[in-house]
Amino acid sequence: MIHQVMTDSHNAWRRARQRRGRPPVQKEAVESYVRELVVSGRLKPGDSVPTRRGLAAQFDASPVTVQAAVAGLVREGFLTVRSQRTFVSENSPHLCRYAVVLPVARDEIEKNRFWKALVLETERIRDQEGRDIRIYFDVNGGATSPGEVELLEDVARRRLAGIIFASAPFLLKKSPILRRQGIARVAFMTPAKGYAGLSTITLSGFEARALALMAASGRKRVAVLCTPGVEEEWERRILKTPGIRMRKSWLQSVSQTAPQSARRCMWLLMDTARTERPDGLVITDDNLVEAATLGLKEAGARVPAQLQVIAHCNYPRLPHAHVPVEWVGYDARLAVKTAIEDLDRQIRKGSPPRRLSVGPVVGRQDS
């Protein structure tokens, strides 16, 4: 089998040499051949690789060219040198290196607190636990950002074992980042068609948990501050929750990109001139918490005596709150752990992708 791989690689090298006639073709052919032996499993971790003399003879290449190819594979992590002999690395990147992929530039992740928490937890795991994890920013299918160019090269050169997508990779459906075989993948997204070979992790349960806490506390008039696009879903949930009602004017939506509008919404919501005001408030997005709670404080809302506030968060990064808040949210530490464990399962056991879910965590009141 190894002889056949060597023959195929050698023939491919000869064709390329005839077309291009450049010395780098020899180096690329040697690299490609040895890398394929490792990635295919024909050479296992700890196995010795073909000698430099044998590679030079097989590819009609100079010792300098073969040494350059081997040195390149050592730098990439596929090979290691001990006592002047070359072996397959015990931690070859195609088995151990994971990528975390975000669709925005690094300086934009502050706009999405889940992504920020995800990045911080990934960096902690990399620095404190020694896992080989790399973060790629601004990967959106355009193949123009440095992060995406680097990721494409790592995929092409088989330097990744698994990929974690911070969101649904719908812009990458035709990209090898999503289509290249031999790489395990998992994404934080709602399961959808068109993503074969991709495990999904859904963050779900916040809505049900928040309303259950309101009902358990005896709150009957509940307001909701959400982001655009989910208003009708919240109306349906309120209607289905026994003992809780909501006026239409108590359901307000504010964009993540304009959180200061939440402050003014709270002024109106808690206006003392109103004949009836809510006794509970659910803030569904942690990007809105700071501005909304500032508005409550300015409006003189008595929290939690007259108004219970339940706010979404992404542990362990809690937003600043100006009034006491009961936190309900998703733990980025658990989310990343779940993603890594699923990649490990896919790689080590050869198991197929699956659908996973991470539920909410309830925290203490804080301000």
Kindly describe this structure.
The protein contains 13 helices and 14 strands. It has 367 residues and is of the alpha/beta class. The chain folds into three domains: 2-92, Orthogonal Bundle (Arc Repressor Mutant, subunit A); 97-203 and 334-362, Response regulator (Rossmann fold, 3-Layer(aba) Sandwich), CATH 3.40.50; 206-323, Rossmann fold, CATH 3.40.50. The strands form three sheets. A six-stranded parallel sheet has the order 4-3-5-6-7-13, sandwiched between helices. Strands 9-8-10-11-12-14 form a six-stranded mixed sheet, with helices on both faces. A two-stranded antiparallel sheet has the order 1-2. β10 (280-283), α12 and β11 form a beta-alpha-beta unit. α1 runs antiparallel to α2, α2 (24-39) packs across α4 (63-76) and α11 (261-269) packs parallel to α12. The longest helix has 19 residues, at 2-20. It is elongated, with a radius of gyration of 27 Å.
Helix fraction?
Answer: 40-55%
Number of domains: 3
CATH topology assignment of the largest domain: Rossmann fold
Largest β sheet strand count, sense and barrel closure = 6 strands, parallel
* Cα shape: elongated
Low-confidence segments, ≥5 residues, pLDDT <50?
1-10
Strand content is: 15-25%
CATH superfamily of the largest domain: Response regulator
**What is the element string, with H for helices and E for strands?**
HHHHEEHEHEHEHEEHEHEHEHEEHEE
